[in-house]
Automatic annotation (TrEMBL):
Region feature Disordered, mapped onto this chain: 1-24
Catalysed reactions, semicolon-separated: GTP + H2O = 7,8-dihydroneopterin 3'-triphosphate + formate + H(+)
Protein name: GTP cyclohydrolase 1
InterPro entries attached to this UniProt entry: GTP-CH-I_C/QueF, GTP-CH-I_N, GTP_CycHdrlase_I, GTP_CycHdrlase_I_CS, GTP_CycHdrlase_I_dom
Keywords: GTP-binding, Hydrolase, Nucleotide-binding, Tetrahydrobiopterin biosynthesis
Family annotation (NCBIfam families): folE, PRK09347.1-2, PRK09347.1-3
Its EC number(s): 3.5.4.16
Transmembrane segments: none
Organism: Parnassius mnemosyne
MF (Gene Ontology): GTP binding; GTP cyclohydrolase I activity; zinc ion binding
Amino acid sequence: MATVNGKDLNMEQPAVPPSSLIRRVSSRSIRNSISEDKENGENVNTVKGSFVSKYKKTPEALKNFHMNDVENELEVPGTPMTPRTSTTPGHENCTFHHDLELDHRPPTREALLPDMANSYRLLLTGLGEDPERQGLLKTPERAAKAMLFFTKGYDQSLEEVLNNAIFDEDTDEMVVVKDIEMFSMCEHHLVPFYGKVSIGYLPQGKILGLSKLARIVEIFSRRLQVQERLTKQIAIAVTQAVRPAGVAVVIEGVHMCMVMRGVQKINSKTVTSTMLGVFRDDPKTREEFLNLVHSK
């Protein structure tokens, strides 16, 4: 049995609670803990190292508690990032890269069209069609161009889209932009889903240009997606942009993979939501946002 400095390396390590569990700690539970400490005769301002004393002394840290936790959540496995970027030195501006060829000239999006068009031509042949007949002669090229447009979000970054449209403003009142049209592609069947996105946030000294909220929706919806992940990505992007006290996102979508195939339920809608910060902790704030979203 291997040991280092007298410690058994094969001993089972204590489980680390998932970040999703940590995020659910609310201000209400903190207040309850403070009350319990008082009942036990403990001074919450002097108990060193306790969770309660930390946030009792520094209420500002409580405001940012959820925000810090979502900082890197776009990096979690299974989350599609922009595939044509690299952090390798010399590749910062590449749209397509090979890590061992730092002096290469990356192809443009237009250079990808011939291979994509050939793939569509093969697909038409597999369906039993004749790609050379008049009606389908230009279809492979058209389809390739359309797919590049449907997935243009892969070549967009948050910094590029925001373009410094972040402004200092002494306000902490709720900002809501609702019914933003959204079109995306289901990654399971490569068919569209579409709907409306509503975004709300509580500023902390900084606001975002209103049109930028719609552009954030475009970045992540114009990729191969699932609605659940899309909802979370939009919320985290707004958090990274202006560091608000909280962000709320609700998406109502219609999925053609349910309408055109499978169960074929043409009237079904899928509603997803992500609540961060104050919107997760404070029921009244969450209720106010939902009332604004659902009002006519």
